[in-house]
Structure formats: C-alpha cells, structure tokens
Amino acid sequence: MAFEEICFPNNIRNIRLSRGMRMTALAKKAGLSLSAMSKVEKGVRRLKQGQLMQLCGILNCKLSDVFIKADDDKANSWQCEMQRRLSGNESSGLKVFGAGVRVLRRGLGKTIAQAAKDAKMTLSVYHKIEIGQRDVYEKEIDNLAKALGKTVDGMFKAIAELYNSGALDKQIDKAEERVREALRVGKSETSADVDTSIYGATMYDSVRKNLVPVYGMPDGKNLAFAKSDEKMIALPAKMKSGAGIYAVRPNVARMGAMFPAKSYLFVNPSVHPIAGDLAIAFDEDFGKIAPNARVNARIVMIREDKNGNLIGVSVAPEEKIQIKNAKRAHKVVQIVME
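Structure (tokenized):
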C-alpha cells in the first residue's frame, strides 16, 4: 500500500475548528473543492503563496500560525506518521520503482510534464509515482511503459538492472530527503515574533521572503503603526526584498487626491529620505519602537526649512513636523494598488 507524501504539515484544521468553521465553508470561501481542502488540511497538498495568504485572511490568523512549531502536540504525531509512510514505501519497493522511472525518463531527455502527458496521467499522479508515494495500477502500466519507450516487461527489466547496479541508490536517497525535509526542524529568523523552532521552516521562509508585513493602517489623520506580521502583503513585481521593508495603507478618504483607492505604500527603512521624497515619519526613533507596540506615524513630504533642516509636511490637514534624525523617517520606495 502506498501513502501520500506529507509535503505541507500545517495547523489549518486546528485553526478552522477553533473558529467554529466547517471545512465546506472554508473550501467555498477559498475557491477550493472539498477534496482539495481536505488534502490541504492533511498536509498532502501544497498551496500557492496567494492561496496560503487567502486562507490566513479567511481564518483571521497570521502566516506563522499556520506552520507547526516544535512544541506543538501535533509535531510528534507528524514525525511518527512520516516515518510510518517512509517505512511503508521502503518495504513495498515503491521508492525503487519510482527512482527507476525517473532515471529512465531523464535518459530520454523528457521533462516530468512531458512524461506525464505521454503516460496519460496528471502531473501530480506522475510525480507521486516517481518519488515512490503511489502505486501504479494495471490499467496505467502500459501507458507508463510506452511513455518511457519500453514494453512493460522491458521497463521492469531495465529498472531491475539499474537497481542491481546501484545506480538508483542516489535517486532513492534524494527522494527520501525531500520527504523528510518537510518535517525538518529549523530556526526561522525572518519574522519578528516567530522565535521558536518550527517544522517546515524552509517552507515558511520560502513564502515569507516574498511577503512584507503591513505595519501601518489608516487611523484618522495618522497611521496606526505596529511592528507586527498580523497582516502580510506580497512584494510588487520586480521589487527586490530588502531587510526590513514594510508596507502601510494610507487613508484614501482623506488623501484620495494623492493616492489611488486600495493602495499600499512600500517603505524601505534603510533608505534615508531627502527633500522631495515621500516618507513615513515617527515621533520617536524607529529602532526604539517595541514589537507589536502601537504608535502614531504620518505620511509626509520631505522638505527643507530656511536653515536647511529636514521637515515633514503632512496633508489633510497640512502640518509641519521636525525630522530630528534619520531614524525618524523612512523613504516610500513604491506605491501600488491592491
């Protein structure tokens, strides 16, 4: 018996249940079939970055909440389940067969997509066969052999010869390592409030590096500002992620003449603004603002007074703010619509 690969261990089911939400409701809001949603919760289906962020929005949770932490009760059961599945595939010979299929496919210079198409399989099914996570049924075996340019007997013979020669050992080891990587304990240092080892840390970092936190939201004439990843947004296309980049959302009701509706300002704290720049100004040094502490911030245009000192000029209403040092103003580097 084959077992599906656990590729995305997560807390989505627990979060959903804590919200009193049925899986059917979550699937409908996320635009997924009930089957797909079930696989996501079981950890045997991957999510695109946009889908993951959408689920966080629906469940009203942080990205870091989704990933399993080392001290979660669920972590040990994930490890036991993964070991059971690895052992099951080892004894059934599926990893040997899958590794052989991969070597034969590469020998023909075919991509996985090409081989899947020739075998009349979905890409997902074909991929699971190659990594040793799925049986091949009798009705599928002829098409698979043909896709590899062989008869059924010829395919099995070729795989046996590869196995006996030791040529599959490296492929088998790689397949197992990819599966184990999903539950490798690592240290994630990309988020201000994620300070424990988490399972799937490499996946978290992979998603997190393409996102930035939204630190500021409209609050009257100013911004309600807090260093928190409670809300995240994807980086604009072609914009390189830099240390500390964050976003704020302006109050377009007050500043609509300056910004389009549903716009975000992306801010780079390592770039000091000069006269003529749009910036975010603070009443205190940015570095002294504690994580999750709520402070006021303003969107300002940087100007010079008659003495050559920098000042920030806010709008709606117009107000002049003394920029005492570079740590109290960050340059807005890009404006985008949601």
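DSSP finds 14 helices and twelve strands in the chain. The longest helix spans residues 73-92.
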